[in-house]
């Protein structure tokens, strides 16, 4: 069970809704993933062209918690504006703070993220900032009162997986709020790894939507998440540099 | 009526003088959308009473796929 603010979720998977090959595939992928939290972006409606189908309008909104993001913002003020627009829909009060500080790497701007998180907390939002894997920044965000921290595994959409497991482990160890590993996840092994490190959840999008078979991949990441979590709870063995025999070292046949 | 609507200059019939009329004009009443006029959010309860004036900057936004 994942608890964010006063909400509890059976699934620890948060799924993005961008870049699926079709709504049919997307609906099925969302269903088999068993996620309960879906992220969305906030954009101008394309009112000057024939009405396009909208994924959110086809969802059973009683089954999902919406987590809009502030993608597109490059300052705290822009992020707050987007967050308020999202909340005015009356459909959500959670916000993923996403303030990009660098166009090429899409890495988050730590200073604006901190500033926006503070402003949004004052406005009463449930605040989940997407951050770099900086240990001190995660602490500073927690001190502000954010409801979860979401350090990136690697740059958005890169599929590079967890490039700094040590920093993630430090963040997880120190954190008193849920840690959700967000961005850069490439495959089920990355999901399992994040969960084995002790993450409370994983947020991914392209790993599923961009897979050759997104529906099958949605199922795969669900299992990976469960396997990783169970492994974490079970407590893995210590790593050693040399072999330790699994079979008895006495009573050998023929000696 | 002349507005800046979602970044475009538009000229609409004079009857389009409220947010409610604007949404009706584009047949958006049943869509999940949020309206902002001159950077102020207009709540649903105010759609019929919120008057629009020449030169207003209007944004109609919604949720799209994203991560």
From TrEMBL, chain B:
Q: What CDD domains is this protein classified in?
A: Ubl_ThiS (cd00565)
One Pfam family per UniProt: ThiS
Spell out the InterPro entries in the cross-references: Beta-grasp_dom_sf (IPR012675), Mopterin_synth/thiamin_S_b (IPR016155), Thi_S (IPR010035), ThiS/MoaD-like (IPR003749)
Classification via Gene3D superfamilies: 3.10.20.30
Write out the coiled-coil annotation as residue ranges.
Answer: none
Q: Which PANTHER family match?
A: SULFUR CARRIER PROTEIN THIS (PTHR34472:SF1)
Q: What protein is this chain from? A: Sulfur carrier protein ThiS
What is the organism field in this record? Answer: Oceanobacillus profundus
